[in-house]
Amino acid sequence: MKRSINQRFVDGIKFDRLRVELGKAAGARLEIFDAKLAGFGVRVTANGAISYFYLYSVSRRRRRLTLGSHPILSAAAARDAALQAAAEVRAGGDPANKKRVDRDALSVDETFKLFLDAPVSGAKHRDDKRSPRTVENYRQQYRQHVCPTIGKVPVKAVEKADIERVVRSAERGKDGEGGHHGQANVVLNLVKAIMRYAYEEELVDQQPRYPKPHRRKAREVRLTLSDLADLGAALDQAEANGWSLIPLTVFRFLLLTGMRAGEAEQLRWDGVDFEAKRITYTVYKGAARAGHVPRSILLTEPVADLLETAKLWRRRGNLYVFPAEQGPGHTGAVEHSWWVFRLKYLSGHSALAKLTRHDLRHAFAGFGAGHLGLGAEALKDLLHHAQTTTTEGYIDIGSDVIDAHAAALADGLAAALRASEPHAGKAPSAPNQTAHARGPTGP
Residues 204-255: pLDDT tens digits? Predict the structure, then answer.
């Protein structure tokens, strides 16, 4: 089959429809050649991966040159690459062999640079880039643990033993004391992403075997209404003792909105509309991806009251709702303030002593599920998660809600056993199975 291979055609490729048109068996790879440029075509796999190629002959031997994958490479750029390869073949060259030699010499350091410049794996748009913060985190992890260990190793020669050395370096940490299992898992995921990119770009023939990540116990934030009241009292006490209102207001804001800390800290006044009762995020996770929709939430009355307080420190030249003490930037000391606040006001409370700033986001989800009966799908939208499975890890039901369920179940079952008597207890409705991960839903 020959088609005019352009961006519109490639963007509209559907594997199953093409398979029927070509009369191919299920699971077979499909190849479509360009109607004008001989040898230039696209290959589509059963999982929907699309790549460009150029076929030519050298000494009567058929050679295949992979030009790149969609959407990293546009159809126009792929055509230009195919024209360049055709000119090289006419001049007596062998572009596929040259690429193979260059690939064998590519180091992990060089592959990492290409990886950072490429769109996110599985992206739908060529402009889907990682956020600057993600790139900086990757660079820091790579610089500290990957580069000193395997940076000069040819990417094609990377084996499981090499990756294990990287993981051990991350486990030791900067202090050399070890036990940094979370950091080791983060670095391992980065190495996997680099090697997956190398495989997708055909820089390696196959991915290496990977060591198993450390299994971390899932964190649970099971706050009761009493715990939340104690947290509120601690915040009030800190305010009465003269604490800065900015971090205390951020803490309350995080709990009432479920925002990520970085999103709240970088919120600007031009994103707050008191009349429309909307808050539009200034910075948020996923904003760097092409085709994203600006994210906003309802400006509720309790949050509006907090922002009225925030007007007290609003000053000319600073656009942020939670400004830095000096200069035009946003506050950056909230995390440190939280640790000090927790040490001083929550250390004696069994349920709050280890509460982190991010746990306020978990508490938002747990309250919604336990006391309002919200399902995981609704909470996914409120938390702005990409997948429901992520949200399920946030839903931790307080023991007071679980005890209420236990009492209602026992009363209902006891009444059911007394067949000759009217049912004294009313059994609760069946819980929404998608609404929780580690506990029942709210009544």
Answer: 888 999 999 887 666 678 899 999 999 999 999 999 999 989 999 999 999 9
Q: Which long-range contacts (CB under 8 A, 24 or more apart) does 378-385 make?
A: 379/435, 382/258, 382/297, 383/258, 384/284, 384/285, 384/286, 384/295
Q: pTM of the full predicted structure?
A: 0.59
Where is 94: in which H helix or E strand? Answer: none
CA distance 356 to 227: 14
294-305 burial: b if 16+ Cβ within 10 Å, else e: ebebebeeebee
What domains appear along the chain, each with residue ranges and CATH number? 2-101 (3.30.160.390), 114-200 (no CATH), 225-349 (1.10.443.10), 358-443 (no CATH)
Relative orientation angle of helices 359-372 and 245-257, to the nearest 10 degrees: 40
On whether the CB atoms of residues 269 and 314 are closer than 8 A, the answer is yes
Contacts 24+ apart (CB under 8 A), 65-71: 65/95, 65/96, 65/99, 66/99, 66/202, 68/201, 69/200, 69/201, 70/10, 70/42, 71/119, 71/123, 71/124, 71/125, 71/126, 71/128
Which stretches within 128-180 are classed as H helix?
132-141, 147-150, 160-172
Report pLDDT for 274: 94
